[in-house]
Every structure is written in structure tokens, then in C-alpha cells.
Write a structure and sequence with these properties.
Elements: H1 7-13, E1 25-29, E2 32-35, E3 40-43, H2 46-49, H3 58-68, H4 81-93, E4 98-102, H5 105-124, E5 130-134, H6 143-148, E6 165-168, H7 173-179, E7 184-189, E8 192-193, E9 199-200, H8 203-215, E10 219-223, H9 237-241, E11 247-250, E12 261-265, H10 267-270, H11 286-299, H12 302-326, E13 329-335, E14 338-343, H13 351-360, E15 363-364, E16 366-367, E17 372-375, H14 383-403
Parallel strand pairs: 3-15, 5-6, 5-7, 7-10, 10-11
Antiparallel strand pairs: 1-2, 2-3, 4-12, 8-9, 11-12, 13-14, 14-17, 16-17
Helix pairs in contact: 3-11, 4-11, 12-14, 13-14
């Protein structure tokens, strides 16, 4: 494989806002990735919960290739057949009546938050504009979404940030009750806090949020950028909980690796986005919509969704077995194939060390903060890949423990 481009090039030509690994992946197939030197890695990171069907899934490649020979981009001055088919598929499978498409999770959340304020202004007046969200949440990296996110480190140096945003404790009903008022236009919750540590919401908490929003004429927004499209074992996590939001954001797994985001909502709420109120140049382009439609057709089947649950249990059992040997985790938590290993006090703050150790054994993992090792593999990851990945992780953990 060609080594004309090296990791050193990143430090010369890229803005230094990322710190990528020392190796460069150049090829992927299923849950396997190869770097420039031909080393084979098992991928349990999934492009940060994006590669829902693994790398180069043949049906996604075919959908993209077929559409690429027809029509790439026309803008939203026109519509196109693939985006309308995708909208039909998503509304048929969810609570929603309407869909808006964009290019990322941050853009999807930006649309959610703008729509919530516009809807409140249309129906209750401009003073009903406060958005409240959870501490330690994450909703994207635009100035608006990073402000709604409840992690102050992401807004440092970017002040002044948008006003009218408050935060409450995740999974704390009393904290939510204290925060919500008649000025609240929206409550924003991740059904599973992803970047915040792979922490699932309690069902009672989400039910209380639904009831409080109804009492205060506020909209309930679920950020399902990371949990959506089969990740939890249901098409969307709200279906797992039996609590229905008013607006939902989706991205990551939706495109299976091709950039796309979506906002889903009801007929009534959608009317506040009349012509000209919001837009995007690339959103809903035929290429992205064709791939996403194929992802939905594959994922939203009993076989794949049931497979997520069985594969999740296989991973959990293996991770717990590793922990029985080395006592490095407080718990393994999460839903479906979004799992987090919470480090024990003896290894507090060292999640990145676990990821680095795993990479030396040719295993790709993620962090979710400094104390949680995150796994977000393909929803169709093969059992043999799970088993071999666990063996590699066992060896990595053994080295870390021995070196401590």
C-alpha cells in the first residue's frame, strides 16, 4: 500500500483541532480495517457509531454507485426522488409526519432548536424561548448546539454564547421540575448520553419529561444522533422506552458512513418552518438519501434489530469476563451496541490509555470522557469479530494492569 502520505502530513497541513492516531486506515470491509502497512484491525468504534453496517457494505456501495450514475445534486430549489422515498420510509416507521434533511448531527440539532423556538414564538409569543437540556450532554459543535450541550469545556473561548439556555441534572426528575417554567420552549434529552459517558436515561425520567413538557406547553426533543437507526435494538431509542418526543434528531448510523442528518417531527410543529425560514444547500441530496434509504431498509428488520440485542449480550458477557479477571471496570452499561466500560477508581481518568493499548493489539475502540471506554460497532458485526476483539482487548488490559 502507498505510504506517500504519512501521519506527519497531518501536522503540516491540517488545523490542529484533532489528535488522530499514529496509523492511517486505508481500507475497510465489514468490521475489519487495514492501515497503510497492511495491518488488520477489528473495528468496534464504528466511526463513532456511524458505520452501522460496517465498512463498504455491498448493498450500500451498490445504492451509492447506482445513484452516482444518475444524479448527484440539484439543491432544494428542486426536490428529488431518493429524498422523498427516504422521508416516506422514516415517517412510516416513526411517530413523525414530516422530515427535514441536512448533513450532520449538529445540523439536525440546530434545526430542532430553531424549530422549537419558532414554534413557541408562533403559538405563545417571543418570550417563550428558553431551551433546557441536561448537564454533561452533547448536541454538536456549532455555537448554538455546543451551548445547549451541558459541557462547559466545549464553550471555553467562544463567548458570548447564545442566551436563553439552562441545564438540569440528567436522570433527576426534581432537577428538571426546578428548571422548567412557562418560558421553556423545549426540553432536550439524549435517551442515552453518548459523549457524556454512555449513560442510559431512566424510563421514569423520560416519562416525567414528557408529562412536564405537556404541562408547560414545551416541546420534548430527543437527540437520537447516536442512539438512532437500530443502535439500541429498536429503530429509535424512544421506541425502546415507550416515550414519544415532539421532535427527534438523527444522523450518524442513518447514513452508514455517508454524511446525512435528519430532523423528524409532527405536521403541526413542522408548519412553523414555512418557506424560507430554514435551509441547507446540500441537505437531502440524492446520493446521501439513496444510501440512507438502503440503511433503513436493512436495519429496520426483525433480524437485524434482534441481532443487535444478541450481539450486545455477547459483548457484555465478554467484557464482564475480562473485568472478572482484572477488576478494571465499575460497570458495563449502555443499550444495544452502544456500550460503555466505566473505569474503576484505580484506573480513573485513563480511558484513553485503554484505547491506545487496544490499538497496539489492532483493536479500535473509543472513549466517552476520561473515565469510560466506549464501544459502538457495526450493528451487523459478526460473532467471530466480537470474540476475537474480546481476546485482543483482554491482552491489552492485561498489559495495562501489569504495567500499573
Amino acid at each position: 500500500m502507498s505510504n506517500s502520505i504519512t501521519r506527519a502530513d497531518f501536522d503540516q497541513v491540517m488545523v490542529p483541532n484533532y489528535g488522530p492516531a499514529a496509523f492511517i486506515p486505508v481500507k475497510g470491509l465489514g468490521s475489519r480495517v487495514w492501515d497503510q502497512d497492511g495491518r488488520e484491525f477489528i473495528d468496534l468504534a464504528g466511526g463513532i457509531a456511524v458505520n452501522s453496517l460496517g465498512h463498504c457494505h455491498p448493498q450500500l456501495v451498490a445504492a451509492l454507485t447506482e445513484q452516482a450514475g444518475k444524479l448527484w445534486h440539484v439543491s432544494n430549489v428542486f426536490t428529488n426522488e431518493p429524498v422523498l422515498k427516504l422521508a416516506h420510509a422514516l415517517t412510516a416507521a416513526t411517530f413523525a409526519d414530516r422530515a427535514f434533511f441536512c448533513n450532520s448531527g449538529a445540523e439536525a440539532n440546530e434545526a430542532c432548536f430553531k424549530l422549537a423556538r419558532k414554534y413557541a414564538a408562533d403559538h405563545f409569543g417571543p418570550e417563550k424561548n428558553e431551551i433546557i437540556s441536561c448537564k454533561n450532554s452533547f448536541h454538536g459543535r456549532t455555537l448554538f448546539t455546543v451551548s445547549v450541550g451541558g459541557q462547559p469545556k466545549y464553550t471555553e473561548g467562544f463567548a458570548p454564547v447564545p442566551a436563553g439556555i439552562q441545564h438540569f441534572e440528567f436522570n433527576n426528575i426534581d432537577s428538571l421540575k426546578a428548571a422548567i417554567t412557562d418560558k421553556t420552549c423545549a426540553v432536550v434529552i439524549e435517551p442515552v448520553q453518548g459523549e457524556g459517558g454512555v449513560l442510559p436515561a431512566d424510563k421514569a425520567f423520560l416519562q416525567a419529561a414528557r408529562e412536564l413538557c405537556d404541562q408547560h406547553n414545551a416541546l420534548l426533543i430527543f437527540d437520537e444522533v447516536q442512539t438512532g437507526v437500530g443502535r439500541t435494538g429498536s429503530l429509535y431509542a424512544y421506541q425502546e422506552y415507550g416515550v414519544t418526543p415532539d421532535i427527534l434528531s438523527s444522523a450518524k448510523s442513518l447514513g452508514g458512513g455517508f454524511p446525512i442528518g435528519a430532523m423528524l417531527t409532527t405536521d403541526k410543529i413542522a408548519q412553523s418552518f414555512s418557506v424560507g425560514t430554514h435551509g441547507t444547500t446540500y441537505g437531502g441530496n440524492p446520493l446521501a438519501a439513496s444510501v440512507a434509504l438502503k440503511v433503513i431498509e436493512i436495519v429496520n428488520t426483525p433480524e437485524v434489530l434482534a441481532g443487535v440485542r444478541t450481539k450486545s449480550q455477547r459483548l457484555r458477557d465478554g467484557l464482564n469476563a475480562i473485568n472478572d479477571k482484572y477488576q478494571v471496570f465499575k460497570e458495563v452499561r449502555g443499550m444495544g451496541l452502544l456500550l460503555g466500560c466505566v473505569l474503576s477508581d484505580a484506573f480513573a481518568g485513563r480511558a484513553k490509555d485503554f484505547v491506545n493499548a487496544a490499538s497496539k493489539h489492532q483493536l479500535l475502540l473509543l472513549v466517552a470522557g476520561v473515565n469510560v471506554v466506549r464501544l459502538a460497532p457495526a450493528l451487523v458485526v459478526e460473532e467471530r469479530d466480537i470474540d476475537e476483539a474480546l481476546q485482543r482487548f483482554d491482552a491489552a488490559v492485561a498489559e495495562l494492569v501489569a504495567a500499573k
